[in-house]
Amino acid sequence: MVQQSSYPIGLSGQVWGESEKAKWLKAQTIKRSYLQEVVAKIAPFAEHFQVDQYGALSYNPSEYPLFVVKSKQWSEDKPTVLVTGGVHGYETSGVQGAIRFLETKAKEYEDRFNILVAPCVSPWGYETINRWNPNAVDPNRSFYQDSPAEESAALMAYVEDLGIDITAHIDLHETTDTDNSEFRPALAARDAVEHSNWNIPDGFYLVGNTELPADDFQTAIIESVVKVTHIAPADDAGKLIGAPLSQFGVINYATKALGLCIGFSDSVYATTTEVYPDSPKVDDENCILAQVAAITGGLDYILPLSKPLT
């Protein structure tokens, strides 16, 4: 018999059907405002950057418009950097870190790069503090053709329409204690599979692409972030979240095969940040600053690839 963690929805050994998903959705509640905490902060960027609405979620289009912020001085001669936040809406510093980068640092790089930032890919998840979307689908496992997650599909379609190559893609995430207390048990119940809980790393780490690890790029980001916050040590088995280290503070996943956000862009330089906001060593501001440091560390590393416009 299939074994799984106890969860209040569904029966052990049975994959969720529509009734279980509906019951799960009914249990979700709005806990914060996407329009107030995210959209209101994006609007002023239109003074200096180009703010594009690339869609709206069908769950409630007026409440969940989707935005990207991009350089006005767009040029085919400059490499393009994509920053994504809020693919998992509950991971707050990913969203606010993307916004803080636009507020404080992005202008310093726009003469060398095309800057493209999607601050909150999953706004319903942001409001309900959820990993999944309302259909109990994980957007960060859905970045592939005919995606079941409209959050993922909308971003991929927008980037494809730009007709450009993405040189670097930095996707801002968190690993939280609720990964073990809520989201992994829910996943086990939904799919009727066994999910053993892993040790939550205390500190910042990165997830690179197994097929194109860009080791020096990852090192540069770690060296930038360590000036702001602590890097997660490996566990007793020499791993982070069950994966072996490729270097201090870095593991690699098969990002494209898993449907992860950094996999769809086919970037030479790609990484997923993981901040640990539940650590007693950090606060909300420190987590946001760590995300900004990750972006700037990556951009500083690839600066030699770019050239200032004359």
Automatic annotation (TrEMBL):
Which stretches are annotated as coiled coil? none
Q: Name one GO molecular function term.
A: zinc ion binding
Provide one Gene Ontology biological process annotation: proteolysis
The organism of origin for this protein: Shewanella psychrophila
> Residues of the signal sequence?
none
Q: What is this protein called?
A: Zinc carboxypeptidase
Pfam families cross-referenced by the UniProt entry: Peptidase_M14
Q: Does the keyword GTP-binding apply?
A: no
